[in-house]
Write a structure and sequence with these properties.
alpha+beta, SH3 type barrels, 2 domains, five-stranded antiparallel β-sheet, 3 helices, about 20% strand
Length: about 130
């Protein structure tokens, strides 16, 4: 408040420079805070739109299960080996989705990586 009063008393040029600095700070805050948040919201919306029955999901509470039914804003997730443990939940409670074919690809790529590491260790005698 004191700075603005001094700027107004000293002349209009100083008041204008404070205004430019304030606008610059707001622009920087926009790009630091709001743009990444919007990107994250779009990513989550795409994730939720791409869900399908049979996908493996992780919930916000850390529980891992399989989707067995999807409606507009609700999903029914089956947890564990017990087929009677089915819980309806809101889609927004899901934080990660893994397609069954992605899980198979990760397993095979992990096995291939482990084989390469074993060959490397054999070459160097470790």
């Amino acid at each position: 408040m004191v700075l603005f009063a001094e700027a107004a008393g000293a002349g209009g040029a100083l008041g204008g420079s404070y205004f430019i600095v304030l606008i610059g700070m707001l622009v920087v805050m926009y790009f630091i805070m709001i743009v990444p948040q919007r990107k994250e919201q779009k990513k989550k919306a795409q994730l939720l739109a791409a869900m399908a029955i049979g996908d493996s999901v992780r919930t916000a509470s850390g529980m891992i299960g399989t989707i067995i039914d999807i409606s507009d804003n609700m999903v029914i997730v089956e947890f564990g080996n017990n087929k009677n443990c089915r819980i309806p939940m809101i889609k927004e409670a899901i934080t990660e989705v893994e397609k069954p074919q992605d899980a198979v690809a990760k397993t095979t790529s992990t096995a291939a990586t482990e084989e390469k590491q074993e060959k490397k260790f054999k070459l160097f005698g470790k």
